[in-house]
Amino acid sequence: MQAVRVKYRDRQKYICYEGPPTFKTFLDCVVKKFDIPTGDIKVYDETNTEVDEDVFEFLLKKQDLGVLKICLPQDRNLDDSLSSTSCCSFASFSGDNDMDSDDTIILQHSPATSKRDDGSRLAQMVEEILKNKPGGERVLNEYARTKSVTDGRRRDMVKILVAHMTSEHGTSPSRRIKEDYARGITALFPNLADPRSKFGYEHYYNAEDGSGYLAWRLKFVQKEASNGQKKTGSQLQTQTGGPKAERDPFRVENCLTTESLCCEAIALMKHTADEATVKEKMKQTFTYRQNMVHDSVKSSEIFTAFPRFLDIKGLIDQDFGLMFGDAATKFLERWPTVYKQKVLEQSQGLTQTADLQELLQNAQCTSDLENGWDSDMSSILILVHLLPPSPNGRKRPGKLSARQASNHLVKFLKTGTSIQGHLDSITESLQPYLLAVGTQKSLIHKYFIVIDKHAIPCKSTDTLASFDELFKAHFVFGTSYNQDLVNVYNFLQTTIYEIDVDITKVNPRVAELRARMLH
């Protein structure tokens, strides 16, 4: 009789044999004792070399099993990578009296080891593809030199990998194949991984909605292969995060809990001249107001119920602070010290149009300017060039330029021009934007947030503080981003403010820039 002490996770049991155990009887006993799923169980030695039945029995006779590893195939429904496994390591068997009876077989899951091994395999696959294709070496060399890749090199890499993918797996490869190539990219080039996404590689391929650079290139190849015949693609996943997401319940100290008390506070705010009283009552009616802005009927009455937004500064910032706490200060802390310079660095790879060159010159200038926006506003508008509007769903030919999109972010009004006249001239419902009033673009004396034909005065004449307040207004009033600026706002929301990172669907271009910035 032989007894083997086997440990699986936090349980330890003996497995007894009549005579020397065979490979099959050992596996059968382990499966039965610990209720491990049956299947294609594989055994490996310390060098990750597979141990089959013949080798197992040979090593057992020589008492040279050493430390082995059992790998169990994962549930296929998890849709993980092809080679992902649940791995368990164990020491050599005990035998009769001539063997050490205290030897223990220890089984413990270490899926991270398996994923690392699989990541190395996929990284090697991508590296071999790039090495053997024209243009691939330039991608590898650029990353080795800069720890990043330019847009042009990224396009070259995607074309090379998709060409290889379609030659090996056809023009309609499986979801798992596409994921393997995407994982291989970020495993080989870690700085291209997006730290704010679940897996890091979704901007190359996102299995949830079929988006990403690899998927888009595949669709182009499929279109060419079908002689331009249109095919219906999967619908984009609805964005669940962002300004229109309901955040209930809100926990605010001394918040009024009944509608009658809220109505009394609202009536008081309309007639008092004391700003401190207004701000305190605004805090107390915060939950009531948020419920109102997320009501499709009542939201249009927000400025009727709370007109003090229009004459008391700082109320937007106060509401946003009640919603997100420390996130309220992140933009003003991080943009001038970190992200402004990174935006300037990333813009060097863009086509240098006259408009962009003027913005770059002004952003880097520390003295007074004669033409164009000041340094801070110029740096924000450069971000619009880095994340231009997407053409998705645009009916008119082509897509809106970055310069045209910038006009949806800030408009200039010369001092002396009627603000009410500007509001009266609005003919369509637009998303919030900044109205900059001054003698010239670089000398702004007042900023307003224009929303629903109302002009809300910003609490500061500082450019960055006013833009920060514009961003916050989307959340305070529950309004969606302008379609032509959604990439810019999503970048700021998930990268700098760090709001709804896990539940906000972003364009792959946003994820790519986010990865560059965060690395």
Plain-language structure description:
By secondary structure, the chain is α+β, with helices and mostly antiparallel strands. The chain has three domains: 108 residues, Ubiquitin-like (UB roll); 111 residues, no CATH class; 178 residues, no CATH class. 44% of the residues lie in helices and 11% in strands. The chain has 20 helices and ten strands. The strands form three sheets. It has a four-stranded mixed β-sheet. The protein has a three-stranded mixed β-sheet with strand order 2-1-6, with helices on one face. A three-stranded antiparallel β-sheet has the order 3-4-5. The radius of gyration is 31 Å and the shape is globular. About 9% of the residues have low confidence.
pLDDT averaged over residues: 82
**What is the gyration radius calculated from CA atoms?**
31 Å
- Specify the overall morphology: globular
Structural class: alpha+beta
Tally of strands: 10
